[in-house]
Amino acid sequence: MSDTPALPPDRILSGREEEMRQRAAGIVEELARTIRQFPAETEDLDLLRDAAERLGALFLLVIAGEFNSGKSAVVNALLNDTVMPEGVTPTTSAIHILRYGPSTNEVVGIDGIVEHTYPADFLRDVNLVDTPGTNAIIREHEALSQRFVPRADLVLFVTSADRPFTESERQFMTEIRGWGKKIVVVLNKIDLLRNDEEIAEVIEFIRTNSVRLLGLEPQIFPVSARLAREAQTSEAPEERERLWAASRFGALEEFILSTLDEQTRIRLKLLNPLGIADRVGGRYRAIAAERLDLLDRDLQTIERIEQRIAVFESEMRADFTAYLSRIEAIVYRMNERADRFFDRTIRLGRVFDLLDRERIQREFEQEVIADTEQQIDAAVAEMIDWMVERDLRLWQSVTEYIDRRQLDRHQDEVVGESGAQFTYDRQALLGAVARRAGEVVEQFDPGREAQVIAEALRGAVTQTAVAEVGAIGLGAAVIALATTAAMDVTGILAAVTVGGLGLLILPARKRHARELLRRRSVELRERLAEALSDQFDREVRRSTARVRDALSPYATFVRTERDRFQRLAQALEAVDADITELRRVLEG
Question: What is the largest CA-CA distance in the chain?
Fold first, then answer.
């Protein structure tokens, strides 16, 4: 059974009204298209679809209020007949829809909605809905009423004069107001009040609290539906007139039957889908804002990690320069010792000593080489330990950043079911980064890491140096960081003695030996620096690449989702602007 009958064939909208209807329908359709990308909850899409369909349906007047406030009595007084059951208990336990029909009839639908037909002229243009009480014990009936409210073009809210504006009424009116519905308050049972002053006092109470608590000043009709029905059924004209005047029902009847004319109904009907769109759109604007805030904080975390990587690289390069200078200084000091050694050794007074190859080699190793190899080994080992420690600290800082982001997981729940996949994807990726960082930190073995770097460095140094070992063995011995510390200078010393022992030849040979050693030393420093720098660069790239690889899926998700929700937020803002503009036109 449909509860959204189409307009009768003779109800033709004017050109301007049709234009407004199409604009309203376009806004609803655009909003539905936009929120599907969240994805949207089925209930929200159903509301928008129903709102669009109702643009071509009869005006829907919904009667709401607490049970025993006299809603059914108001309906019966409007129809001038006892159509709805009345009583002091919740007699209306289902939603009742009253439509025009040539005869009185009643059919219960499979959804529990009771459809009545009644031959009242004003029902030709209006469908009237009577709902269960907002404070009914049967909560499923109340939920049904609340689901039906968004369809209303106008809500007639009935409150009782003996307990006006109760807490449940305030809450329900707040819900109605949230849907952008026009509310007209019917203050029923004024016959329970003693005089006009008390009636005015209750009206003022409702008006003041509506403004203060709801932010609206509703139109209020004080009536007595009971007296109105007594007047309608009275056979004595004078009594009928007295009761009718005392009921004050005429003003409400005039509003429903005359003031609420076709133009007004059309205006309210066009405003109805805008109210629904505003409510639904506001919810998804809030969702988009929540997610953008969450993603912005995620992005800040990613940027902080990137900044931490940049600081890591900068500090590593600065500190590496100091280590490299320290190692080069070791070679410089060896050169200085070599200069002193040549000055002391290659001279006429030690001609015969120069012929003792083993003795000169021992002296060279003791005085020049000394502990050069151990110093270089110690400096390189310290540098490797430093690199390993800094790599661990980088991963620890990543773990701390990610752990803090995981504390925000509970905030994802505010987006509701429509955020389930978003929440799952984000938490899965965040968890993956956390697990990767945690595993690296927990399984980090400084000794093993240092050994890997040392072996790679030793291999790099050996490859660059061993291929060109010359007359001296200094380059190969020190660059390869081997265990031997001896320096074979006999080739140089033998060359000094070849050709005689003259005063002119010996100084020339000494200069040649010193220049040769210095040249080899420069090659040593350059090759050593090159090998260390290359290996350092590889290790820094390896460290940062591991972090970025772990972070990459999460970072890609955050940036992609942020761009997507920025576009959705802009689309929702555009829909909101369209709603505001069309409302201005309709209400202007």
Answer: 158
